[in-house]
């Protein structure tokens, strides 16, 4: 950076010795060394901060490029999948046209009139069904729900 030779440093030292004298020269040298050290530390800190910022900017640019390329790939895959689906649907539609299927309807039973017993449909597990639960199961709770002392009995 600066090209200062040994001869130039010796000349500066001799001039400082003559101007400041032997008593104040060591204190002045310490003070100059302290300030130069602080300036060097500030310069190094600034240099490191700029290097980190450059690396950070490079990383951000790299991430943006990767994100853009991934986004383009995803869009291309979506377009390709949509085209394939459309072609498949058109191929299925041209082979055989499916008949219009009626909508599935639930069979509902009419509400029983007050004072009458509802009709029992075998195989349903609705409350009030007769004969769907064995009597042995209703007298005891299932084994998973029983207390340990009930198992010993």
TrEMBL record:
Keywords, alphabetical: Cell membrane, Membrane, Protein transport, Translocation, Transmembrane, Transmembrane helix, Transport
Span list, region Disordered: 66-153
Membrane topology, from the record: Single-pass membrane protein
Cellular compartments annotated: Cell membrane; Membrane
Keyword field contains Protein transport: yes
Transmembrane segments: 6-22
InterPro entries on file: TatA/B/E, TatB
Annotated family: Belongs to the TatB family.
Protein name: Sec-independent protein translocase protein TatB
Source organism phylogeny: Bacteria, Pseudomonadati, Pseudomonadota, Gammaproteobacteria, Oceanospirillales
Gene field: tatB
């Amino acid at each position: 950076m600066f090209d200062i030779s040994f001869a130039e440093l010796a000349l500066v030292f001799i001039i400082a010795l003559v101007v400041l004298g032997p008593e104040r020269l060591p204190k002045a040298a310490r003070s100059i060394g302290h300030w130069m050290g602080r300036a060097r530390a500030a310069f190094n800190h600034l240099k490191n901060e700029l290097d980190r910022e450059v690396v950070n900017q490079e990383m951000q640019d790299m991430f943006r490029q990767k994100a853009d390329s991934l986004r383009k790939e995803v869009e291309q895959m979506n377009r390709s999948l949509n085209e394939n689906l459309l072609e498949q649907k058109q191929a299925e539609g041209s082979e055989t046209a499916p008949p219009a299927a009626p909508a599935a309807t639930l069979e509902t039973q009419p509400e029983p009139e007050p004072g009458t017993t509802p009709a029992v449909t075998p195989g349903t597990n609705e409350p009030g069904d007769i004969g769907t639960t064995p009597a042995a199961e209703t007298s005891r709770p299932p084994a998973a729900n029983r207390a340990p002392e009930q198992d010993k009995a």
